[in-house]
Amino acid sequence: MPNLSLSSGLQKTTSDAGKSLRSHVPDFFCRYASGDVGLVDVRRPDKVDDPHFELTRQLCDELGWKYTVFTGLESPQAETLEWLAGYRTDRYAPTPEAHGILLGIFDTETSLRSGVRAASRRSERTRDVVLGNVLHLLFHGELHFDPLLPLTMESTIRRRLEASP
């Protein structure tokens, strides 16, 4: 579900559970495009049994809010994101001319390999430079691929988040 807005660490929840007063600050407050509201906690999988999470879940249920404990991305998602993060810096950003060429090429779904070849020919830049540009745009969300699959040279890349009709 797409987020409309996201705030971090701004809401403290307090509960009189049993004999002691408990408080907890969830990691994120979300307002979704649907109008729904929710809280998100981010924890390692071995820390999800914290009693604060159950109290926060109960509070969210009472308020009609969504509640999620995010424990991390599964492979290959985590591995792909970590790898793409190496291309996040401006060093890999395409020039304005190359940027326009890349967005035009990937306006129609195409494989990473075919898109890099075409952009290399049009921009007269090496394939290695163009590949770095594409990976930079993927990291920054200007180009998209299916994150549930490993990213390979045969992966389908597109400009729009949704698949082309």
TrEMBL record:
Residues 1-17 have a biased composition (Polar residues). Residues 1-20 are annotated as: Disordered. This is Uncharacterized protein. It comes from Corynebacterium variabile.
